[in-house]
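Good day; I would like, with your permission, to put a structural problem before you. A protein sequence and the structure tokens that stand for its backbone fold form the material at issue. Thank you for your consideration; the sequence and its tokens are set out here:
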Amino acid sequence: MPRPQPNGRSGKAKARAVTQPSLRFLTLALELRENIYAHVLHNHPSSLVDLLLVNRQLSREVKPFLYKLPWTFDGQSQLFEWLSKVDHAYLRHVEEIRFKLHDINPDEIVGALGKKLQNANITRASGSRGPDTPDNPYFEACRADLRRIGAAFRLLQNLRRLTILSASERDSQPHHRTQDAFSKLVGQCFPKLKFLASEEDQLPIDFISGKSELRTLRFPATTSSEDEETEEIFSALSLTELEICRFPHHTASGSEEWDCVTPVLESASALRSLTLFERPGAETPNLAAEVFVGSQSALKRHRHSLRSLKLLAKPGPEYTADEGGDPVRPEAYCAAFLAQSSLTHVEFLDVWMSIYEHLPRTTQTVTWRLDEPPRPPNVATSVARIKKMVTHAAQMRGSPRDPRHPLLRRIVIHLDAFFPSDEIRRPDHPSNEILLMARAKLGQLGIRLDWKGWEGVPSL
């Protein structure tokens, strides 16, 4: 049975009795549990019956909390098994799930449909799905499975956060028709969602439909839907945060998909936060170029509403927006957008360091990410860039009325063990000296400097 994930991360689900979550309370020290019992019983001597009543009451009180924790289901079989064991009266407390759609397992299907699958030699061992025809029992089994998933989803009426996980190479990957039907099903469920994430890059856009309360969307901005449908669905939403995330994709494609960055930005409501995230090996790279060059006009719609921009995707090579046009560099278009924006927070990878001197005056916080690749080539380069940040900050403070300079209040650097911690602890190490100098100098300028990801540098 899947267990709740306190940190929101997926974990390997295990089939256990429904009483398993109560072990969280039993992990407390016995003395502490006894103090709790004594407090509940008003420190009076208690009989065994009194103690059992206390345990019963504690069980009632802890269940809503446990059900509110994120649940991860690696396939619909885990979801069905979980629902067969839990108390449905507490499902109203479930607020977040992470779900991965698997292909059907023909060997688990019984009855007349199971017999049809066997006669058609559609088994897990054969790996066959049969002919691509409407009367194929494989597709009949997929439709029946989706009906069960829909019935399960409709039990979670108060769900607020949903993450659709992508199938890996080791998973039984569903047919693209099943994915299309699943997307439509998600669009018909969960009307109270406020956060929706999808790692799948081949879903039709209708999985986002019917979500009037949705505020944060994280998806690859690729779809098999037409631009007109994408624009219609996004224009009905009231998004405030959009995260476009591209990952290496492992699912064998059976349907065509293409990026929908431009129609999304053209039809989305005024965004307050935009994140661009791209892993090496992503199926559709050059995300930054698609946004700042290919969707330049659409992005301008959000230049006054945006307050946070996170550049966690490489700028990429030179990009040609129009056929026959001259290639351009995305960094230049990004700098031009920044100059017209009203951003208060900008977060970027080291490869975007060139935009540091082009931040808008409204910028209050800058976050420099050394914990995500590509990192600087060496520590000396990082030290030189820290010096540059300090020098630039001093110049800004030297001309406070200059409208070109941002009113920085805070700089955050994510180190994540990039600096050699064993060496940097030595007082005479040059990196240690520059870090301390940067903190002191920025402090004099009224700029707070925070470090994250390395224990050797204490936070302010």
Q: What stands out?
A: Residues 6-22, 250-254, 454-460 have pLDDT under 50 and may be disordered.
